[in-house]
């Protein structure tokens, strides 16, 4: 490998790892000795200083890390302050609906209704502050109970859970039939 390829490899390692990486680990990955690896990294550090770039490589007690230059923090803060767009996919909406109507409810109960694993969906809904942990069920294994938050009420424009729309029995039967038909189609495939 030429120096350019070593530099690219070091850059990839430091960027991907995110945290500091020991010189010895980098040298082993490049199949070089520590002295040559350190020289290449020091050369890269100088290049980053000279070039008008937003990143740098810093040495931390014999390890190296790629990070943002302090003069770029202003721009990062502007991005971080921008409100994050929440995207509620069909999976998230379905999971949220079950939790809203059945709360307090365990993950297993939600999964039984949906027929698939819901761990990721529930985690996302917690991240979005639409669902929270309400405690634990007094049963073997003490499973977590989930329910909706005040943010859920605000987001959907209802004052309380009692204000959620009531499904009429005809709609419920239609939904059950659709679900059964979907299951038959999936089983035929």
Automatic annotation (TrEMBL):
This protein's UniProt keywords: Cell cycle, Cell division, Chromosome partition, Cytoplasm
- GO CC annotation terms, alphabetical: cytoplasm
- GO annotations under biological process? cell division; chromosome separation; DNA replication
Where does the UniProt annotation locate this protein?
A: Cytoplasm
Keyword Acyltransferase attributed: no
What superkingdom does the record give? Bacteria
Q: What's the family?
A: Belongs to the ScpB family.
User: What is the annotated quaternary arrangement, including any partners?
Assistant: Homodimer. Homodimerization may be required to stabilize the binding of ScpA to the Smc head domains. Component of a cohesin-like complex composed of ScpA, ScpB and the Smc homodimer, in which ScpA and ScpB bind to the head domain of Smc. The presence of the three proteins is required for the association of the complex with DNA.
Q: What does this protein do?
A: Participates in chromosomal partition during cell division. May act via the formation of a condensin-like complex containing Smc and ScpA that pull DNA away from mid-cell into both cell halves.
NCBIfam families reported in the protein's UniProt record: SMC-Scp complex subunit ScpB
Name of the molecule in the record = Segregation and condensation protein B
The protein's organism comes out as Roseburia porci
């Amino acid at each position: 490998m030429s120096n350019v390829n070593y530099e690219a490899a070091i850059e990839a390692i430091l960027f991907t790892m995110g945290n500091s990486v020991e010189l010895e680990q980098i040298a082993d990955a490049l199949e070089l000795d520590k002295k040559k690896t350190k020289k290449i990294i020091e050369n890269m550090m100088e290049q980053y200083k000279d070039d008008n770039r937003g990143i740098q490589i810093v040495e931390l007690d014999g390890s190296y890390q790629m990070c943002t230059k302090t003069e770029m923090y202003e721009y990062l803060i502007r991005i971080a302050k921008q409100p994050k767009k929440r995207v509620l996919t069909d999976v998230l909406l379905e999971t949220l609906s079950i939790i809203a109507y059945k709360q307090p409810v365990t993950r297993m109960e939600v999964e039984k209704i949906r027929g698939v694993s819901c761990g990721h969906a529930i985690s996302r809904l917690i991240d979005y502050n639409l669902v929270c942990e309400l405690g634990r069920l007094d049963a073997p294994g003490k499973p977590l109970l989930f329910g909706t938050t005040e943010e859920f009420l605000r987001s959907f424009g209802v004052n309380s859970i009692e204000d959620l729309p009531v499904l009429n029995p005809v709609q419920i039967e239609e939904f059950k039939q659709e679900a059964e038909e979907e299951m038959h189609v999936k089983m035929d495939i």
